[in-house]
Amino acid sequence: MSDDIRQQQFSLEAEQVVLGCLMQSQRPFADVEPLLGKGDVFYRQQHATIYRALLELRDRQEPTDPITLAAHLLGTGDLNKVGGATYLHECMALAPIDAQAGHFARKVAQFAALRFLEREGLRIARVAQTAHHEEADAILDQARSWLAELTVSTVNRTDALWQDAAARTLTDMGEIADAPDEPVGIPTGLHDVDEVLEGLRPGQLTLVAARPRVGKSVLLLNVAQHASFKLGKRVVFFSLEMSEPEVVTRMFSAGTSVPLTRIRLAKQLTDEDWTKLGRYVGDTDAAPLHIDPSPKAGLAHIRATTKRIAEEHGGVDLVLVDYLQLMPPANPRQSREQQVSELSRGLKLFAKEIGAPVIAACQLNRGPEQRADKKPQLGDLRESGSLEQDGDQVILLHREDADNPDSPKAGECDLIIAKNRHGRQDTITVAAQLHLSRFVSTAIV
């Protein structure tokens, strides 16, 4: 871009005024620190050095006037680097007595965001120019991850005074007390599970873990169907393992009681089956369920897709990911344990960010196979102990007939609630009607 078109993405005056305001009084720190952070947003390095020195003086409860500041910078060997004591006085002189430090700090942060965007844009362009066409999906996901780091520090402050936090909490408690006698969060559709978990709560991460072919995907699909089709909640289902037709046919079977094998082999469907399917599609036609079958849905993709849906429809109520270990890592060079740790932590932070419950299926290691009873434990969470740490609830699935078809508990599945941050642990037995792609509470079978 030519110099006559390209605008300067910085304001030296705004940077100087902010520093001058902080030298006049310590009061503006409360307004500018959430915007300026540790000073990386300053265009001139000398301004970042001055700002950090001011923070050090403030933290030590010392004055921040130019004389004290100059003495501090002299002691650290930085005084000449920032322009000497004369430059400090110049910055202070530029700041009017009634200057709004927060206004100028916001300007500094906005310019920094534009520079970041320009830098990352060039970075993405360089990668794209040398990439093979088969790498396009991976590069798109990486680009989303880089841009997700862009945070213009113009957001509302995140802290809350006790008085305000207590008042809001009491209001929320009053609404819950006056509401019908239902779970606090979104019900899963399994009555006994909802009694223990009190529903799926906003901002929480629930992990559903099991060995292969036990029913992780089935449980997530059932929860998605119940929340969207019966409760009208806006649900986003990310399926990294199954294609769109596989997801839909399983939901068909669970919703119509037509065996999945007949649905897969459509020629075996009877006229009655077709009628059931047609009626079911008609009844659920307006359901706010979004299915994303991308096999390479990384954290950045999940975040971007969910936010887009939320913006288009005024929010998202529930997000499901099937399953975590299939998500591509942001940094392929890390160890697998580090990758899984970052993914689980990312999903937890994402749940808080969007204010909705997130459920992620997880693979267990071979630990259960080495025990006589084959029952899974929290320690079996595959590849990373951070899964146990990040999950607000952890539900382990165990079917005896998965290993022993002649088991007296054939047709049943134990949902072991091994971690429940806000309630008790328990084991709930449900009917495993896997030929219909569903679990059903034994009380209503």
Structure description:
By secondary structure, the chain is α/β, with parallel strands linked by helices. The protein has helices at 12-24, 29-36, 45-59, 66-76, 84-94, 101-130, 136-148, 162-178, 191-197, 216-230, 244-256, 260-264, 271-283, 299-313, 336-354, 386-390; strands at residues 205-210, 235-239, 289-292, 318-322, 358-363, 393-398, 412-420, 426-433, 438-441. The chain folds into 2 domains: 1-154, Orthogonal Bundle (DNAb Helicase, Chain A); 183-444, 3-Layer(aba) Sandwich (Rossmann fold). The longest helix is centred in the first third of the chain and has 30 residues, at 101-130. The protein is elongated, with a radius of gyration of 28 Å.
What would the keywords be for this entry?
445 residues, alpha/beta, DNAb Helicase, Chain A, Rossmann fold, 16 helices, 12% strand, elongated
Principal-axis shape: elongated
CATH superfamily of the largest domain: P-loop containing nucleotide triphosphate hydrolases
Mean pLDDT: 84
Main sheet summary: 9 strands, mixed
CATH topology of the largest domain: Rossmann fold
Regions with pLDDT < 50 over 5+ consecutive residues? 1-5, 152-157
Helix content: 40-55%
Helix count equals 16
Work out the oligomeric state of the chains in this entry. Answer: single chain
Number of domains: 2
Structural class: alpha/beta
Brief synopsis:
The chain has helices spanning about 10-25, 30-35, 45-60, 65-75, 85-95, 100-130, 135-150, 160-180, 190-195, 215-230, 245-255, 260-265, 270-285, 300-315, 335-355, 385-390; strands at about 205-210, 235-240, 290, 320, 360-365, 395-400, 410-420, 425-435, 440.
